[in-house]
Specification:
The protein has 23 helices and 23 strands. It is of the alpha/beta class and 613 residues long.
Length: 613
Amino acid sequence: MSHTHISPDKTAEEWEHERIAISDALLDATASLATGDTVDAVLRTTCNALVSASSHIRLAWKYLGPYDAETIVPMYTVGPEKDYADGLALANDKATQSGPTRTSLRTLRPVITVIRTSEPFAPWRERAMAHGLEACASFPFGNRESDIRGAVAIYVNREDYFEQVGLEPFIAFANLAQAAFDQALLREKLEELATFDAMTGLLTRHTLQQMMEHEHARARRRESSYSLVLFDVDRFKVTNDHFGHQAGDKVLVGIAEITRDFLRESDLVSRWGGEEFLCLLPDTGIDEASTIAERLRREIATSDIHIDSQDRTLRVTISAGVASYPDHAEMLRDVLNTADAALYEAKRSGRDRVISGESGRHQVFSIAGELEDAIKTKRMVAAFQPIVDLKTGDIVGEEALARLRTESGELLEAGRFIEAAAQMQLTHRIDQEIILQSMDRCVLQVSTGMPINHFVNVSPELLRHPHLVQSILEQAQVRCQCVAGQLGAEKPLVIEITEREFLGDTAVAREILAPLIDFGFRIAVDDFGSGYSSFQYLADLPVSFLKIEGSLVQRVKSEPRVRSILQGIRDIAGELDLITIAEYVDNEKTVDVLREIGIHLAQGYYFGRPEIH
C-alpha cells in the first residue's frame, strides 16, 4: 500500500481524461434519478460509479439522517480502502464539529480537506494516512428547513486531486443528490396530503377504499359484519349558488366536524366526493348501522353551521343509504353499490331520510335501465368546461364531462349515475359516446379556424374493449379526413387517465393506450398529486399534461407548504417539458398565486361551468 501523498505528475491530457471519466460516471448515475429511485439508491449508484471511474478515488461513503445526530456513522461504503470507514463514528463533540462531514452538513456547503495538514482532521489523520488517503471532500445536500440532511464523503490518494480535476463534476454530483432529495421530500408530502382531504381533514376516498378492503378481508376471516353509511348534503347546489362557494365549503367542513365527533372511535369517515361522505362502521350489523345513521341525520339537521365571519349560520339536511356485509352482499363492491342505491332512493323519495338494505338496492337496476335508454336515444350528452391559459387569459382547451338528460328534461351530473353505470358495466359505452361528441366538436372548431384541445376522461373499462378502441380510431380517421389540411401529427384530443384507475400498472396502461397514442392523441395524468404512483406514469408513459389534484389547488392561496409543493410539481413538469393544468380554480386569489408559481393552464368555476353546446 502506498503512503506517498503526491504521486508522479500527470500530464494535462491525463487529467482531462480523469475529468471526463468522473463526469461520465456521474452522467450514468443520473439514470437512477430519472427512474424514480430513492435517495439511498441514487447515492449508492453514484458512489459505486465514482470509485469505478478512478483509481485515485479510494473510498466513498454516504450518510442520510439528522444532521445534528449524536453519532454519525457511514451508512454505505465502497472502495479499496473501505476498511477505513468500518467502525468510523463521528460523535457530536468539539473535536468533530469542525471536521469535514459535520461542517458540510451544518453549513450545507462542500468541504475539501488535505488530511496531512488539516487540523480538524487530526483525530483520524494517522489511520487515514495508513490507508494511503491524502484528501477528503464532503458534499452535502438537504435544506435548512429540515433536520434530515445527507452527505457523501470522497477520499483520494492525492492531496492535489480535487485541485487538478476541478470541483465542477462533484458539484454536479451534489446537485444530483439534491434533486433526488427534493423529489423524495415532494413524494412524501404528496403521499401525506393524499391521505387526508384538504378541506375537511377527513380521509380521502382512496385511503378509505384501502381501509375498507382490509376491513372486508378481516370480516370474512372472522365471520363478522361491517356496515357502510353513504350520505350527501341535500340541495347543496342551491346553498352554493345562493350563499357562494366559500359558504358551501364551510358547510362541508361543519358536517365533517359533526360526523367525526358523533361517530365512535373505531368508525372511519371519508369525504367520498363533492358533497358526499362515506362512513365505515366495523363490527356493526344493519340494524345498529341504521340507528347510527338516523341519529347522525338528526344531529346534522339540528346543528347550526357557521358560514362566514359575520357569524351567520345555516341548517342543512342529509340523505343517507346504509348497507351491510354480509346481509346485503358478499363482495365489497356490491355492498358499496347497495349503499349507493339506497342513497339514491332516499333522495328520490324526498330527501332528509335514511334508507337501508334491499329497498335501495333494486334502484340500481332502474337507474341502469334509464342509462341504457339514454345511450340509445342520445340523451347522454357532453358538457364542456373551459381550460384557460393563465398568462393570456385565452381559452385554449375544454374538458368533456358526461351528463344524462332524463325524459323529464332534468340534467344529471355523472355523480348521480356513474356508480350504477359501473355496476352494470355501462361505463365504456358512456365513454365512447362522450369521446365521439368531443370529436365532432373538435372538427367543428378546427373547420372554423378556432382549434383548441379537448380533454376526455377515459376509464380502463373502455380501453380494455379492443373493438371499441378500434371503432373510436376509425371514427377519428373519418372525422380527421374532413379537416386533414388543418391538422398536424398531434391531434387536438387529449385522453385523461387517473393513476389509481390502473392500480399503478404502467405496463398495462402503455399497452392499451398504444393505438390511440400512435394515432396522435396525447395523454394527461389527471388528479396528479393524489397518489404516489403518479411519478411512475411520468417515467413510463408519453405524458404531455399534468392536471394537478383540485384539493391541492384550493389550498395554495393560503398555505405556503402547499405552494412549495405546487412549485415542485411545476419544476418537475418544466424539466420534463410537460404542461401543467390546475383544477378546481374558483377565485381570483388562487389564479394570482398559480400565475406566480408558473402553472400554465387552469379550469374551474372561476372561468366557467360545464355547458352543453
